[in-house]
Amino acid sequence: MKLQELVGESLTVLKVNKMRTGLSILGIIIGIGSVIALMTLGEASQQSVKQRIEALGSNLLVIRPGSSSSGFLRGGGGDVSTLKLADAQAIADSNRINTVENVAAEYTSAVQAAYGKNNTRVTVAGVTPNYFSIRNIELTLGRSISQSDIDLLTKVAVISPTTAEELFGQTTRYLGQTIKLDGNTFTIVGVTEATGSTGRSSGSETVYVPLSTAQRILFGVSHISSIYVQARNEDVMAAAHNQIGYLLLERHKLKTPADADFSITSQADLLETVTEVTETFTMLLTGIAAISLIVGGIGIMNIMLITVTERTREIGIRKALGAKKKTIILQFLIESIILTVMGGIMGVGLGLGVSVLLTHLMSLPTIIAYNSIMLAVVVACCIGLVFGWYPAQKAAKLQPIEALRYE
Amino acid sequence: MLELTNISKTYVNGSIVTTALDNVSFKIHQGEFVSIVGPSGSGKSTLMHILGALDIPTSGSYSINGTNTEKMKDDQLAEIRNKEIGFIFQAYNLLPRTSALKNVMLPMAYAGVSKTKREQRAKELLEAVGLGDKLTNTPNQLSGGQKQRVAIARALAMNPTLLLADEPTGNLPTNQSVEIMDIFQQLNNEGHTVVVITHEEAIAARTKRMITLVDGKIISDEDLI
Ligand SMILES: Nc1ncnc2c1ncn2[C@@H]1O[C@H](COP(=O)(O)OP(=O)(O)OP(=O)(O)O)[C@@H](O)[C@H]1O
Ligand SMILES: [Mg+2]
Q: How far is B81 from chain A (nearest CA, A)?
């Protein structure tokens, strides 16, 4: 009997039992659907995190005080006062460092900001002039912090739009207005563009002031919180990392990298860590979804076993009329594969629908992984094969006369 | 040629042992026309199933054209059932929810006959048994006698050398029984071997040899001409 005839016969049988067919493939639909949805969501969130990290600035190395043992997730780094502005200047000026394009320093701390009666807690970032370009922060209004601001310890501030809204409400004429930071009067000279919460101090409620003003007038400190280094290009990131590391070790009179009282992280490190985390999560969730797929497969096996039992007499008739083992096996395998592939295709539809909807709601990029669709269909086919195998074998092994006598 | 040597068949059901066939031996040569008669429960159907390679004897051996069936693989037996033997079951055994036409086409499908040829031959056969107007009826839309005739058409589909019929006219009125026997007669005249189980003397009388079974034993085996 030809394959297409067997397929035709199977379809007829499945059509007769529409309800049962539908229910038995539901498990596969849900299983494949959730695998696809989770894979797509995982991919989307990974892409989104990558985009955000890349938005932090290109070829960026961040130096923070404290040991590097626990990477960028380390907390409480601000309490360590081992990094000085002189370190940043040394990195920029040293003739032993030829891989660095630009260096910026930053001191951050939280203070209360006030305008008239409006009050809000903000992060003050004392920065050097090139900070904005290194960190990819654009200004929409006014000017940024200049070298003369640093030299003259002027009390000027560049604020983020969120801070502006908090302090000034709906008014947009805040350039030239003054605000109070811990009792000190600052004149607003610029506004940054709205950025996502892409980094520690480029967050929503930030006020940028000259580094010298922050250190001496606002907080009375001599250390800094971070140094941002822009390497010449991507290829020299590792070299820059090394050169800076050894320069700082020497400046801090430390012998080996293990003693370092600072940590250097790059975008690549950050990306790697975040990617690892999201990948682990995606794999975990997809694994759980895959288990539901196995449950779906067992459902198929169950229904096929019932089918074989119900059709014992039919199998007996077929064998009596000359059906070979192979033909019987093929007939039942085709039936279960049709079931699972149908479920697989519907599951792909469901999974894509859910992921388009969710990525849209979570404003993530929608990336349809076409290979995951192919994979899903192949997997569905395999489930049909694996879980249909035993029932098909059972059918084929029936003795014709025993099968015919079955009531 | 079919040869049975000391064939016994016992069924064990818990503590009850039924001997359906008790040390039966005989031969049927190519081209014979045989009837098997006997009271109900005497083992006629059991014997027929063994002849049709559907059942295996508990002891003894059965060979078809010189080959012992015990030595044949399942698929080989399937091939013989498909190509050499036409079987008409006492209980018809038609595929449920499947049209008369498709039922008759089935053995030819397993033999790999092309679809158009299958359909044409199945139509001819159904017309020959007087069911030309019931081609698309499924078994539950057919009367007992009509089902029996579909079963006969199906058994003839592969033009088998051996036709085994278990009460083929049991549900048919006399005029149709005569027609069916005419078909069997015709096949036998063409050289096919025909074995018929019956309880009707008139049917048995039309065959050339009559084997009588009682309690699983052959009590007589006589040539009728
Ligand atoms: N599967 C079985 N299990 C137990 N006993 C069986 C089985 N099949 C048949 N028998 C018994 O074997 C004996 C022979 O049965 P068989 O069907 O061959 O009789 P028969 O001659 O065809 O009768 P009838 O004319 O009524 O069709 C009977 O006593 C029957 O009860
Ligand atoms: Mg019987």
A: 5
Whether the per-residue pLDDT at A73 is higher than 80: the answer is: no
- Same domain for A256 and A202: yes
Angle formed at CA A295 by CA A292 and CA A299, multiple of 5 degrees: 135
| pLDDT tier for residue A68 given thresholds of 50, 70 and 90 | low
B72 and A CB contact within 8 Å: no
Residues 146-185 of B with CB under 8 A from A: 154, 158
Query: Does A255 share its domain with A293?
Result: no
Contact: B82, A318; criterion CB under 8 Å: no
Minimum distance, in Å, between the CA of residue B57 and any CA atom of chain A: 12
Distance CA A225, CA B3 (A): 102
Strands across the sheet containing B16-28:
B16-28, B2-13, B59-64, B67-68
Exposed e or buried b for every residue in B128-156, given b needs 16+ CB within 10 A?
ebebeebbebbbeebeeebbbbbbbbbbb
Whether residue A374 is predicted with pLDDT greater than 50 in this model: the reply is yes
Per the CB < 8 A criterion, the answer to whether A42 and A281 are in contact is yes
pLDDT in tens, A202-245: 456 889 999 999 999 999 999 999 999 999 888 888 899 999 99
State how far the Cα of B196 lies from the Cα of B164, in Å rounded to an integer. Answer: 6
CA distance A251 to A67: 16
Q: What is the DSSP string of B13-80?
A: ETTEEEEEEEEEEEEE-TT-EEEEE--TTSSHHHHHHHHTTSS--SEEEEEETTEEGGGS-HHHHHHH
Full-model pTM: 0.74
Q: Distance of CA A339 to CAs A253, A315, A327, Å? A: 71, 20, 18
Residues A324 and A253 in one domain: no
Which residues in chain A are contacts of B82 at CB distance < 8 A? 321-322
> What is the extent of the structural domain holding B93?
2-223
Task: Domain count for chain B, please give it.
Answer: 1
* Secondary structure element (H or E) that encloses residue B201, with its range: helix B201-205
- Same domain, yes or no, for A251 and A165? yes
Residues of B in contact with A326 (CB under 8 A): 75
Residue A73 near chain B (CB below 8 Å): no
- Of A260, A285, A315, which one is at a domain's C-terminal end? A260
